[in-house]
Amino acid sequence: MLYRTVPKTGDKLSILGFGCMRFPSTRTGGVDEERAIRQIRHAIDAGVNYFDTAPIYHLGKSEQVLGRALAGGYREKVRIATKLPHWSVFEREDMDRILNGQLKTLQTDHIDYYLLHSLAGASFKKMRDLGVVEFLDAAKKDGRIKNAGFSFHGNVKEFREIVDACDWQFCQIQYNYLDEQNQAGTEGLRYAAAKGLAVIIMEPLRGGNLAGRVPASIQKIWDEAPAKRSPAEWGLRWVWDHPEVTVVLSGMNDEVHIDENLRVADEALPGSLTPDERALIDRVRDEYRRLMKVGCTGCGYCMPCPFGVDIPGCFAGYNAHAIFPHDRAIKFQYLGHHGGLMGEKSHAGLCRQCGKCAKICPQHLPIPALMKDVSKEMEGMMGVVVPVLRGLLWCSHKIGRVRRAIMGEKAHA
Ligand code: SF4
Ligand code: SF4
Question: Which atom of ligand 1 is nearest to the CA of 355?
Answer without folding.
Answer: 1
